[in-house]
Write a structure and sequence with these properties.
Chain B: Belongs to the binding-protein-dependent transport system permease family. LivHM subfamily. The complex is a heterotrimer of chains A (255), B (308) and C (386). Chain A contains 11 helices and 10 strands. Chain A has 255 residues and is α/β, with parallel strands linked by helices. Chain A has one domain: Rossmann fold, CATH 3.40.50.300. Chain A starts with a helix and ends with a helix. The relative contact order of chain A is 0.17. Chain C is mainly alpha-helical and 386 residues long. Chain C has one domain. Chain C has a two-stranded antiparallel ribbon. The chains are: A alpha/beta (255), B mainly alpha (308), C mainly alpha (386). At the A-C interface, helix 3, helix 4 and helix 5 of A face helix 9, helix 10 and helix 11 of C.
């Protein structure tokens, strides 16, 4: 009878525990019996060749895709049974690969919508733009280098600024687990540097899962790296260990 | 309610009712085929589909008049000529409409819906102004009249049989075109990935235009077949549009087989219920069941699970 | 402006726009039109309730319902049932086989008032029913569909099918609904004769009052965070979901709101015109109501009102003089509004008129939506019909 107690305490140490996760589309297993664990305040980077199932893993965690089998536990809550908005409210934030912001609204309104208050219909009708909201929006806008663009329609932001805005929209939710899908893709060198800086400030007091291709960037931020290949974990560990793993070299350079 | 009938009578009533259901099924399939191509493959809602059909019906009517007055000796085969003319007339109009209107709206499906509704109003008025407000019917060649006795209590109409045969032929032709021919492969390629299809050298604009034209052409043939079993008026097309869309959506928009299965289900349900209930109640119950099933299972009967 | 926030939900230019509309409907039109024409405007305005609902539902939230006639009809029928029962007192109907029931029931050999007609003896119940019955219906449909993420063209087709179903049902169940002729020969509202000219004028003002109140409500919704969430949803539904909102609840809400607004319009239609029939329920009227919104500008609350007035005025004058041209005109309007001016007259106003008025109102027309969409001159169009 001791075993379950031990797993329970083990799970408590992890912010996120993914176990035996499988999803199949018409027989094709995009993610196949995947298990991994993310610690508190850990930055985990997921890398892997195209089609390895990286984005699908994030989709599964945030509820966008339903798992065929397996479990995803976030602070002892079973995410596979929850709806997207419930998962968000539990403290999981997700940034999409392509900047996903509201082009018709201003930067301020984009951030305001993401502010975690008034999320029900009645709440949204009676929501007031009071001082705490404005202060919080201002604070986040400064973090994401957009303080001067608050009144601008988001449509007119540059690609890099849109990425930052989306990161800002997640930050204002203050999630405990933040998931970023290729946050520096399509960015210029200077934007990339600023983004790395930004990530270093926002990862305090939360766990982060990042999907990224840029190896220098990965090296810079990762505590631990998970290499996915054909829906399975090929290798896992600190960057140096993963880089030296012959299986990883085979997948990345062998073909 | 059954006590008034003997068992044999009851059996033959069911057979006759089943036959009526099969004719309705053919009608649904003919209507839905063109729509399934346009909606399923291109994602375009063509509210004027019924009017393209009616165009085919009018073409058939005038062909029959022409044969009757000028070459009565060939009257027996006028229908085959009419069908081909109907296909090309509706198809050509469809391609023109695609060029003039639809191609500007591919990214705004709801707006296509409104624009094609406008088109349908204009076409109705054109028919009314040009062909007159009255319904017209074609004269059937002799070999299509009458009915075949199957047993002494059951007999089937020849024109109904003919429409069924026609439906099978057209369905097979469409299936071959979409799934076996090179052109069908191009259409499906464009549907799945427009940019990629363009990149490998498929002229996507041309494919769009011909696909739309084909869908409308099939509508024309359907209209042509309709004249065999009913009359045609300027607004006849509107009567069918809701049923047709429900058939296509119910079948799962992208599957030809689904369309046929759903046409079968809906037509059989309706004709069976028509026997027990009044016509309007049967219609309400059929449509309502379809809508409720669609609410519970919005993807339709047949669907492929895809990775997002 | 956004940073300072608003203490009141109307911006200055909104207030000006509403004031202009109010003056037009409450003062200008009643003074310039004879009773007969004013009643026409009153009838058009009942459709404006539907158009208003569609601005929120279609323009803002991107949900195109082709079944708004269903809600207009439900509201109208609820009101008509009350009025019909009042008109069918035992005294008025003593020549019938069964006195005290509506005449069409008697003609259809029905001898007892159906159970669902009973509560419509009470005005209070009727008013609540006008608002609630369509909302419940919209809730059931919306909940079923939005929870399963059905939207776009599928939603449009299914709502259209519902409009078709309800029409067939009403026409088929003649004994309970009055069939194709609808519920006619309505006379009094709690003893007050609604057929007189003075009653019709009063009802016109009641209708305008309710419409202005509905406009304020629409502005309130639009300017709340909920309004911005609707716009956000139309653009990036997934992002809204992943910001912690249950998207379907918001869609259901706006669909129900649009349904209730349409139903108010339907009830006012019955009161002002004096009958209700399935010809206001089906596919054709439902989609025509969409074109009012499209012509006015699908994003503009006030535009929808002007669009409704304009299209109906055009319809009436065309069908009087060139009935065969009207379908060409209406069809052309559908195509033109979609192809060449998708934001309707409000969009045209924004592009061509507002920039020139800008200095006058202190940059009033800055955003792309919902400033007074039509200059007063085009609002006078119905008056020009004289």
């Amino acid at each position: 009878m001791n075993t379950p107690v031990i797993t329970d305490t083990m799970n408590k140490d992890f912010v996120l525990a993914v176990e035996g996760l499988t999803v199949s589309f018409d027989g094709f297993k995009a993610v196949n019996d995947l298990s991994f664990y993310v610690d508190e305040n850990e930055i985990r980077v997921i890398i892997g060749p195209n089609g390895a199932g990286k984005t699908t893993v994030l989709d599964l965690i945030c509820g966008r895709t339903k798992a065929t089998t397996g479990s995803i536990k976030f602070k002892d809550q079973e995410l596979t049974r929850m709806k997207e908005h419930e998962i968000v409210r539990a403290g999981v934030g997700r940034k999409f690969q392509n900047p996903s912001i509201y082009e018709d609204l201003t930067v301020f309104e984009n951030l305001e919508i993401s502010y975690p208050k008034g999320r029900s219909v009645v709440g949204a009708l009676t929501f007031r733009r009071d001082a705490p909201v404005k202060e919080r929006v201002q604070e986040i806008a400064e973090m994401i280098f957009l303080a001067d663009q608050l009144d601008q329609r988001a449509e007119y932001l540059s690609h890099g600024q849109k990425q930052w805005l989306e990161i800002g929209m997640l930050l204002i939710q203050d999630p405990e687990l933040l998931m970023l899908d290729e946050p520096v893709a399509g960015m210029s060198v200077s934007e990339r540097k600023k983004t790395a800086e930004l990530l270093h400030t926002i990862i305090k007091n939360r766990s982060v899962i990042v999907i990224e291709h840029d190896m220098k960037f990965v090296e810079d931020i990762a505590h631990k790296v998970t290499v996915l290949h054909q829906g399975k974990i090929l290798s896992e560990g600190p960057m140096a260990k993963v880089q030296a793993d012959p299986k990883v070299i085979e997948v990345y350079l062998g073909h | 309610m059954f006590s008034d009938y003997s068992l044999a009578e009851l059996g033959s009533i069911f057979v006759m009712q089943g036959f009526a259901g099969l004719i309705l099924f053919s009608v649904f399939v003919l209507m839905a085929l063109g729509l399934a191509i346009i909606f399923g493959q291109m994602g375009v809602i063509n509210m004027a589909h019924g009017e393209f059909m009616i165009l085919g019906a009018y073409v058939t009517y005038f062909t029959s008049q022409f044969f009757l007055n000028f070459i009565p000796s060939l009257f027996n085969i006028y229908f085959f000529v009419a069908m081909i003319l109907a296909f090309f007339a509706s198809g050509a109009l469809g391609m023109f409409i695609e060029w003039a209107m639809i191609r500007r709206l591919y990214k705004r499906p709801l707006d296509t819906l409104l624009a094609t509704w406008g088109l349908s109003l204009i076409l109705q008025q054109v028919y009314r102004s040009v062909f007159g407000p009255r319904e017209v019917g074609v004269e059937l060649p002799e070999w299509m009249m009458g009915s075949l006795p199957v047993t002494d209590m059951v007999e089937v109409q020849i024109n109904g049989l003919f429409v069924m045969g026609l439906t099978i032929a057209i369905t097979v032709a469409v299936a071959v075109l979409m799934y076996k021919s090179n052109w069908g492969k191009q259409v499906r390629a464009v549907v799945q990935n427009r940019v990629m299809a363009g990149a490998v050298g498929i002229n996507t604009e041309k494919v769009d235009r011909y696909t739309f034209g084909l869908g409308c052409g099939i509508a024309g043939v359907a209209g042509s077949a309709f004249t065999m079993i009913g009359s045609t008026g300027p607004t006849s097309g509107q009567l069918y549009i809701v049923d047709t869309f429900l058939v296509v959506v119910f079948g799962g928009a992208q599957s030809l087989l689904g369309t046929i299965a759903s046409a079968f289900t809906i037509s059989q349900a309706q004709s069976t219920m028509e026997f027990f209930l009044s016509g309007s109640t049967a219609k309400v119950l059929t449509l309502l069941s379809v809508v409720i099933i669609l609410m519970l299972r919005p993807q339709g009967l047949f669907v492929i699970k895809v990775r997002r | 402006m956004t940073k300072t926030g608003r203490t009141f939900f109307l911006r200055p230019q909104d207030m000006i726009g509403i004031a202009i509309l109010a003056i037009l409907l409450l003062v200008v039109l009643p003074l310039t039109l004879d009773n007969f024409r004013l009643q026409f405007v009153g009838k058009y305005l009942t459709y404006a309730f539907v158009a208003l609902g569609l601005v929120l539902c279609w323009g803002y939230a991107g949900i195109l319902s082709l079944g708004q006639g269903v809600f207009f009809g439900l509201g109208g029928y609820c009101m008509a049932m009350f009025l019909k029962l009042e008109a069918s007192s035992v005294e008025n109907t003593k020549i019938q086989t069964t006195p005290g029931i509506p005449d069409f029931m008697d003609w259809n050999q029905i001898t007892q008032l159906p159970w669902f007609w009973e509560p419509f003896h009470h005005l209070g119940f009727t008013i609540i029913a006008v608002l609630v019955v369509p909302a419940i219906f919209a809730f059931v449909v919306g909940f079923a569909m939005f929870k399963r993420r059905v939207g776009g063209v599928y939603f449009a087709i299914i709502t259209q099918a519902l409009a078709a179903i309800l029409t067939i049902l009403i026409v088929g169940q003649q004994g309970y609904t009055g069939g194709i002729n609808g519920i006619t020969d309505l006379r009094t509202l709690n003893g007050w004769d609604i057929r007189t000219d003075s009653a019709k004028t009063i009802l016109y003002f009641v209708c305008v009052g309710l419409l202005l109140a509905s406009i304020l409500l629409a502005y309130f919704v639009k300017s709340s965070k909920l309004g911005r969430i609707l716009v956000a949803m139309r653009d990036k539904e997934d992002r809204v979901r992943f910001s912690g909102y249950d998207v379907s609840n918001f869609k259901v809400f706006v669909f129900c709101l649009a349904a209730s607004l349409s139903a108010i319009g339907g009830a006012m239609f019955t009161l002002q015109v004096g009958f209700m029939s399935p010809s206001f329920v089906g596919i054709v009227p439902s989609i025509e109501m969409v074109i009012y919104t499209a012509v006015g500008g699908r994003l503009s609350i006030l535009g929808a009102i002007y669009g409704t007035l304009l299209v109906n005025w055009a319809k009436t004058s065309f069908s009087e003089s060139f009935p065969e041209l009207w379908l060409f005109g209406l069809g052309g309007l559908f195509i033109a509004v979609v192809l060449t001016f998708p934001n309707g007259i409000a969009g045209l106003y924004q592009t061509y008129v507002a920039p020139r008025l800008g200095p006058l109102f202190g940059g009033a027309a800055k955003r792309s939506d919902a400033t007074p969409p039509a200059p007063p001159s085009s609002g006078h169009a119905p008056a020009a019909a004289e």
